[in-house]
Design a protein that fits this description.
Strand content: under 5%
Number of helices: 7
Main location: membrane
InterPro entries: TspO/MBR-related_sf (IPR038330), TspO_MBR (IPR004307)
Shape: globular
Mean pLDDT: 95
Helix content: over 70%
Subcellular location: Membrane
Low-confidence stretches: none
Largest sheet: none
Organism: Martelella lutilitoris
Protein name: Tryptophan-rich sensory protein
Order of helices and strands: HHHHHHH
Structural class: mainly alpha
Radius of gyration: 16 Å
């Protein structure tokens, strides 16, 4: 029962944090005016995609928290990745700084790949939970880089 509570706290906490960042940094007129690549998905895709990813991120974080101290280094990396993730929207949408956001998303992608590599042997389910996250952030990196290039 304790582990279910820990999973719920992590998942709900990450989803709420992502929701708050998303509400505070809504794409507005500035974003609409940007030139975007042809593969830019419709705006409605982002909320469900990130909601699912935040559940997976929270689930992995809970697993690492429960397994500590063996996974304390991975939990520290997980926390840093969450901070980077939550910093992207304020940079891109809030401050209208796509180039700075690109630096953050590149670091985030590198960190996610490092996380997968480091947890693969210690907690493979957590590594696997991050594979969709890596794929989406790789796409987001390409999208962010394309917007920087086009504008």
């Amino acid at each position: 029962m304790k582990n279910i509570f820990i999973h719920a706290v992590f998942i709900v906490g990450v989803v709420i944090a992502g929701f708050i960042v998303g509400i505070v940094n809504v794409p507005g007129e500035w974003y609409q005016s940007l030139a975007k690549p042809s593969f830019n998905p419709p705006n409605w895709v982002f909320a469900p995609a990130w909601s699912l990813l935040y559940v997976l991120i929270g689930w992995a974080g809970a697993r690492l928290f429960i397994a500590r101290p063996q996974t304390s280094g991975a939990l520290t990396l997980w926390t840093a990745l969450l901070v980077l993730n939550l910093a992207w929207s304020p940079l891109f949408f809030g401050m209208e700084m796509p180039a700075a956001a690109l630096v953050v998303v590149v670091a985030l992608l590198a960190g996610i790949l490092l996380f997968i590599a480091r947890t693969w042997g210690k907690d493979r389910p957590s590594a696997l939970l991050f594979i969709p996250y890596a794929a989406w952030v790789a796409f987001a990196t390409l999208l962010n880089a394309s917007i920087v290039y086009l504008n």
